[in-house]
Amino acid sequence: MEQRSKVRRLILKELLVPMVAVFVILIIAFFGYIIIEGFSPLKSLYMMVITFATIGYGDVVPKTDAGKIFTICIIISGFTVGLYAVGKISAFFVEGELSKLLKLRKMNKVLDSMNDHYIVCGYGKTGKRVLEDLMNKGLDVVIIENNTERSEKLKEMYGKNFIHLDADATDDDVLIQAGIKRAKILISVLSTDAENLFVTLSAKDLNKEIKIITRVAEGNSSEKFKKAGADFIVSPIEIATDRIISIATTSTDFFSFVEFAGGKEELKDYKFGLVEIKVGSDLINKTYREANIPQRTNLVVIGYYSSTSELQVNPTADNLIQLDDKLLVFGNEDQILNLKKIARHTKTN
What pTM value is reported for the model? Predict the structure, then answer.
């Protein structure tokens, strides 16, 4: 409703104001000739029309000096207001103002219908990659970016394939317009920690259920983001450091394997997935040998996160699978989905 009101206000601003200005001049002229010259309503109407149209006089002319001065004022003001009205109306129809308003209205209808969508704040290098990946997966995306140059690139590259708001992501009204209260995940990759922190605070205040992924430039800012409500914090510096340490201290580099897999055509459909063991799964309290995950799903189990420990790589056959464990696996989309079904499947007696 709020967006429809904005569209109406824009239409009123573009069309109603010049039309009202013309109407006011005509009313002043009509009553002015009756009062100043003593003309009858019909004669005053006739005088008003030929004066405003600047087509000259014939049988009816102002008789008094006041009437002549009044006529001069009507001609000048009518000519000025007329040009203004013609210019505004022409711009509205010829220069695409009407098209923009219709597109805005259509966009707002699409936004109102979106649920469980993704909101991306910022279209820098990271935001570009995030947007492309989400779109490749066929997900509904709203991206917020108010940088003029980046906004133009968005229009050129993607057109109608997603919703782009040319606005400030730190503004609560913009987040509401983006459907923050119905969104599934918000990803904030703005240029500064201050902006990302502000977006995190605002998003959690507007929707306490939304999952927030945010980028942190300064390593010591992570605690602030956790307190603000960020669910996942990505620090490029920490990621780079971990990679350097991994390369320097291990003979087999996990990251190198990821790069190798990503560069091979035959492995392009394979990826890493994290599968959580849910209540009722028949995998609970089984060893990895008993669970038989590779045989049941064709997945490779790389490691797991337990509720009490960090990533444990290469679990042994005798390690137990517990409730809430998160298994890090490698395989294609269908194989990972199959394991997710097993991970939440209720035991049968």
Answer: 0.53
> Where among 51, 71, 98 does a domain terminate?
98
Question: What whole-number distance in Å separates Cα of residue 140 and Cα of residue 115?
Answer: 9
Residue 142 C-alpha from the chain's centroid: 3
Same domain for 119 and 233? Answer: yes
What b-and-e string marks burial along 158-191, b requiring 16 or more CB atoms within 10 Å of the CB?
eeeebbbbbbbbbeeebbebbbbeebebbbbbbe
Task: Kindly write down the DSSP assignment for every residue of 147-194, as one continuous string.
Answer: -HHHHHHHHHHHTTSSEEE-S-TT-HHHHHHTTTTT-SEEEE--SSHH
Do the domain assignments include residue 301?
A: yes
Region for 20 from its dihedrals, namely left if φ exceeds 0, alpha if ψ lies in -120 to 50, beta otherwise: alpha
Residue 331: domain span: 267-344
Q: Are 290 and 228 contained in the same domain?
A: no
pLDDT digits (tens, 9 = 90+) for 235-277: 876 666 666 555 555 555 555 666 556 555 556 677 888 899 9
Is residue 72 domain-shared with residue 189, that is, in the same domain? Answer: no
Q: In this predicted model, what pLDDT tens digit does every residue of 106-139 receive, in sequence order?
A: 777 777 778 889 999 999 888 888 888 888 888 8
